[in-house]
Amino acid sequence: MSPVPLPRQPFCDGAHRTKAPDMAPLRFSPEKDGGALLCACKETRTPPYCDGSHLRVLLRDLLGAARRLFK
Asked: How far apart are the first and last CA of the chain?
């Protein structure tokens, strides 16, 4: 089995040009020095920073899978 290539998130890999042509890269300059968590799930309400929205998305997907499993 060949490995699945991982996207180069959070850096632009150009995939949006065909998969989501209305999505553009977000350019930003950090406001201060220090660590920061950048969003890679595209669900954040505070781009480009992670706000934990991926947990909501994960829960939604898990509940959907459980519903399909027991349907």
From this structure: 31
CA quadruple 14, 39, 20, 28: dihedral positive or negative? negative
CB neighbour class for 39 (10 Å; exposed up to 12, middle 13-18, buried from 19): buried
What pTM did the predictor assign? 0.51
Query: What is the mean pLDDT of the segment spanning 19-36?
Result: 81
Range of the structural domain that residue 67 is part of: 37-71
Q: How many domains does the chain have?
A: 1
Report how many helices (DSSP H) and strands (DSSP E) the chain contains, helices first: 2, 0
Token pair belonging to 57: 């998305």
